[in-house]
Amino acid sequence: MTDVYLVGIDMIRFGRFPEKTVPQLAAEAALMALDDAGLTIADMQALYCGNLYEANAMVGQRMLRMIGMTGIPVTNVANACATGATAFREAWTAIRAGVHDVVLAVGAEQMGKGMLSGGGAPAAFNPEGAIGSTSPPSMFALVGLEHQRLYGTTFEQFAKVSVKNHHHSTMNPKAMYQVETPLEQVMGAEMIAYPNTKLMCSVNVDGSAAAVLASEAAAKRLGLMDRAIKVRASVMTSDPFDPRDLAATDFNMVTRLAADRAYEAAGLGPDDIDLIELHDCFATAELVHYENLGLCAPGESGRMIDAGETTLGGRIPVNMSGGLLSKGHPLGATGIANIYEIATHLRGQAGARQVEGARIGLTHVCGGAQDMGSCCAIHILEKV
Amino acid sequence: MKVPFVMAVVDLDDGATLRGTLADIVPDPAAIRFDMPVRLTFRDSGQLDAAGQPYLSYIFVPDEEAA
After folding, report:
1. Are B12 and B18 in contact (CB under 8 A)?
2. ipTM, 2 decimals?
């Protein structure tokens, strides 16, 4: 099977664009990624288009109406917070399998402000509040509190994640926000679901990102090897059975399973990774994922954030983009936008936030819904 | 729905795990302990169906005796 290379990638600045349609957002990022590769839509042999909230409305085809109806196969993808990463992985799979050798992957989302509702149809009886909660903040409150129960991790340690990621985003012109949020401000913000305050919840924004993938032969044929980034691993998992899954959706096992498989596929370990973009949908999630990704031993993530090991200049910088907490989290775009961030560092083009000498990076997304299931996707990327 | 409310994940004595709302407790992290004993009861949820009948729901309350 051929190796797969990332040869073009870009994202729009995340923000709020109510005047645009989802296909318009998708088209903007697609054209930017094609420009980055020096290719056109006519060079693309297939399109994988990730979007969640218009999953039944042919976003990929509507995008092609704007940038070129070339008759290629379009697959519209929806997979919770892993939607964009799933589109990227489907493109990778198609090339790996030898079906196509130059493929476009796009992720786009338009979000309202405020809290996301859970999936599914409303019942006559509304269980929200009466039987706990199925809301995303409640899911990730549980994630944090279980860590606190096991290891004594503190509200302050979780809050430090938000301070760090907001700090990183002050150096990212494509982030929704570029403002410092001191610890007192984070901890004093409105409590959403303990221990996550409003500043410890990801920002709902509109956004899009796109990537062009190619086989090794195609990258050479098109003269793109000098800018190519090798996809060392592309792994996706769904939640393995756990007796507690019916009460509290699993985000830990699903990530550990994906991490094990990704490191094995890449022939690498956590110590070989220079920087990481992981799924900080809530501040509590970031700390548990340090452990799930093997960056430290179980129970050590609180110490890691205290020691600044994941800040720019630290042992393993995490979420240099500002993460979902400050860059923003347009669901369908997130899993390609985090690959953009890693690629930008591997190319040495990240400006003030550049991780010096970055050669190998890892992206992680993990999503799910209470009583439904979860998904995780991990990509390991290397500048060749 | 009234906020704040307290959500609890409860390991039952028989082995299953159930998510629910914990009532009769101050909704303050300082007042709630991990692994505190609770018991399950049924109460009027405050919601009505189309015919005006109340929905009953299970709810957790602190178990004073076990504590």
Report:
1. yes
2. 0.91
Domain extents in chain B:
6-62
CB contact under 8 A, A195 and B35: no
Q: A243: exposed, middle or buried (C-beta count within 10 Å: 0-12, 13-18, 19+)?
A: exposed
Cβ atoms of residues A103 and A7 within 8 Å: no
Residues A74 and A103: beta-carbon distance below 8 Å: no
Residues of chain A contacting residue B19, judged by C-beta atoms under 8 Å apart: 131-132, 246-248, 370
Give the residue on A whose Cα is nearest the Cα of B53.
Answer: A125
CA–CA min distance A296, chain B (Å): 25
CB contact under 8 A, B19 and A248: yes
Instruction: Look up residue A304 and give its two tokens.
Output: 């890691």
Partner-chain contact B7 A132, CB within 8 Å = yes
Query: What three-state secondary structure class fits A106?
Result: strand
Residue B10, C-beta contacts closer than 8 angstroms, at least 6 positions apart? A247, B17, B18, B19, B20, B38, B40, B60
- For residue range A226-267, list pLDDT tens digits in order: 999 999 999 999 999 998 888 999 999 999 999 999 999 999
A124 in contact with B, Cβ within 8 Å = yes
**3 state DSSP class of A96:** helix
**Would you call the peptide bond into B54 cis, given omega within 30 degrees of 0 as the criterion?**
no
Spatial CB neighbours of A10, under 8 Å, sequence gap ≥ 6: A29, A32, A33, A35, A36, A209, A210, A340
At B13 the three-state DSSP class reads coil
For residue A173, count CB atoms less than 10 angstroms from its CB and return exposed for 0-12, middle for 13-18, buried for 19 or more. exposed
Q: How many angstroms separate the most distant Cα atoms in chain A?
A: 61
Q: Model's pTM, two decimal places?
A: 0.96
Candidates A100, A147, A166, A329; catalytic one: A329
- Characterize A319-344 residue by residue with b for buried, 16 or more Cβ atoms within 10 angstroms of its Cβ, and e for exposed: bbbbbbbbbbbbbbbbbbbbbbbbbb
Write the CB contacts of B65 (distance below 8 Å, at least 6 apart in sequence).
none
Cis preceding-peptide flag for A240 (omega within 30 of 0):
no
pLDDT tens-digit map of A268-286: 999 999 999 999 999 999 9
Q: What is the pLDDT of residues B39-62, one digit of tens each?
A: 999 999 999 988 889 999 999 999
Q: Which residues pair with A106 in a beta bridge?
A: A49, A210
